[in-house]
Amino acid sequence: MGDIKVRIWKFGDDVDTDQIIPAEYLTTGDAKKLASHAFAKVRPEFSKEVNEGDIIVAGDNFGCGSSREHAPRALLGAGISCVIARGFARIFFKKSVNIGCI
Question: What are the pLDDT digits (tens) for 60-102?
Fold first, then answer.
């Protein structure tokens, strides 16, 4: 069996949906197009370096902010296999369930 290699992307507390996918890129619902702009303002290297199966590790209140489905959809499109956080914003969690991320 081959080695499994994934990158862990570390974030702190209160990662809001505007950080995950900035508002100016909300013109599409296409997960791959959204992924190409994920974390554009806070981690510009993310969309170019993220690989299928990578993991996000974060603190409290991940996904806080507006109630858009675009944020979990962008992470799905980027190939993120899971988000491990101390806590999730309720609305982000609900939107993730609604689009089948969980």
Answer: 999 999 878 999 999 999 999 999 999 999 999 999 998 887 6
89 neighbors 63 (Cβ within 8 angstroms): yes
Domain count, the chain: 1
Q: The domain spanning residue 68 has which CATH number?
A: 3.20.19.10
Which of 39, 36, 35 shows the shortest CA–CA distance to 16?
39
Q: Give Cα separations from 62 to 2, 3, 5, 11 (angstroms).
A: 32, 30, 24, 9
SS3 of residue 50 by DSSP: coil
Residue 3 lies in a domain: no
Identify the domain containing residue 79 by its residue range: 8-98
Q: Which of 11, 10, 13, 23 is nearest to 66 (CA)?
A: 23
